[in-house]
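step: validate -> pass
step: tokenize input -> pass
step: predict -> running
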Amino acid sequence: MEQDQIIILLIILLALVLFVWEKWRYDVVALGAMLFGVFLGVIPANDAFSGFGHPAVITVAAVLILSKALGNSGVTDLIVSTLTPLTGNFYLYLFALCFVAMVLSAFMNNVGALALLMPVAIATSTKVGRSPSLILMPLSFASLLGGLGTLIGTPPNIIISTFREQSLGEPFSMFDFSPVGGIVALGGLFFICLVGWHLIPKTRVVKRPLQDLLDIKGYVTEIQFNTDSSLINTRHSHLEELAEKASIEILGLIRHAQRFVVIPKNQVYQGGDILIINADPTDLDRFCAKYSFTIKGSDDSQKTEKNRDKILPFGSEKEKEDMELIEVVVGSNSDANNRQIGEIGFRRRYGINLLGVSRQGHSYKGPLKAFALKVGDVLLLRGTTERLEAIVSTLGFMPLAERRLKLGGHKNLYKSISIFAFAIGLTTLKIFPAPVAMSVGALLMVLTKTLNLKDFYDSIDWPIIILLGSMIPISMAFEYTGAANFLVKFFIGESPTLSPLFLLTTILILTMFLTDIMNNAATAIIMAPIAVSIAQSLEVNPDSFLMAVAIGASSSFLTPIGHQNNALILGPGGYKFSDYWRMGLPLEIIITLISIPMILIVWPLQP
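step: predict -> pass
step: emit ->
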């Protein structure tokens, strides 16, 4: 075994460990691994950033842009409006909703499809009194299954296609994945809708995490200045200092039955003023006793309920602003991920009140300032529509429930569908390769003003782009140093005695295992060279093994960390880490039982 082979294998092994550990985000790990390879000499310095111009990276970025344009156009709202009458029949509605998710995911980003349908699933579940937990996991799994059916359905398929072009001279076409992936997806869909949802633990089904979050009395409270309070005639700046020392956050002020969000530092308080505060009950009692405040009771709160939508900022000449109360979920690419709430500054920077946080179905009722947000956390926000739209866009949150925050209307619906279909046609008819065709579609979305430039750049999942651009040089080094070939010969020998069918099944299962604990794109990049090396050693069709990698890399059903979709439903569904394998394990067994025979039929080992 040569030195370069040892080094690249150790780099890949270290990257795998760090992916699973999740101490650092996967794009940081991938970039660090690539630069480490350059430093150790196994990746040529001139080729270090060649991956960012790779066709797979360009295609993924363009598909993300097209997905954003479709989402903004209202195409999903049009489809879902036909599903609403089906809510009375749970089986029929679940099947229809999951089928729509599959179809959307076949032609747009998996996360984008889930982001569009998840609010609808939550809203309809709440309306008919069902727990969102019954629908969200099936919906997430269905969106992952849908990506199996086309070239652009999921990044692993794009990676596999471009790897085939480099290794065998020709990429897979748009619908080469459909015969196997489509059948596997339909089989998985029937399992999910008929059997799978029954496997969700009953303790999760009876919980309603979003409704629990709305009960905010435990940590958001109104307190009123008594006439003998020592803080009457005190400026707001001084009061904030005292409140901070007592671990209390001032969220707003009620004066003369009107609410104010932003309070100037020089504002002087009067007797009868009511503060909206966020506090632990113990800290609250001490603060009220020390400075003579009265905690407003439920009856008092009801008296001002009619004024809750009249929150006015100082300095606006009391211009009325419509207020909304919404739930949002923290996405994997959100700027709020892994940041403390106090660091973000919801009220200070954005004029938004954060009223509560829910994690895995449990409302957090302690001081929020030092609480570090994670993917899947649900936040309860209150503010004007304009400010809520701004913070959702800026911090990368996903609105839940009624999805009032829409950045586009239906006016571009047919335009966006036409442009998307045109791009698909260019690829399907092989007029242009996928990177060019998808890029043409993305450019047309901007030129026709279907998508503005801000959304154009915001829609690109930059961590995924960094991951792909960094891992591709590692994969190339894995191949040209001979490390992939060495691994294959080490495990199956110079003259393989194991049957091709056994090795094909092993590749599928091993890829499934890896994609459940690390990013699916990284899994495809690592497993594709191994699959081709095994096929060449056995002198069988490499396409059979590449299809097994494609199916396995998109089968992330055992954990919430294997795919962003599974992480996003963790909070809104109130799931636990262990809930995923209950439905995911039998689903992966079914996928294996269906995909192996279909691969042998469509992509026979001896073509």
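step: describe -> The beta strands are 220-225, 249-255, 258-260, 274-278, 293-295, 323-330, 353-359, 362-364, 378-384, 397-399.
step: cleanup -> pass
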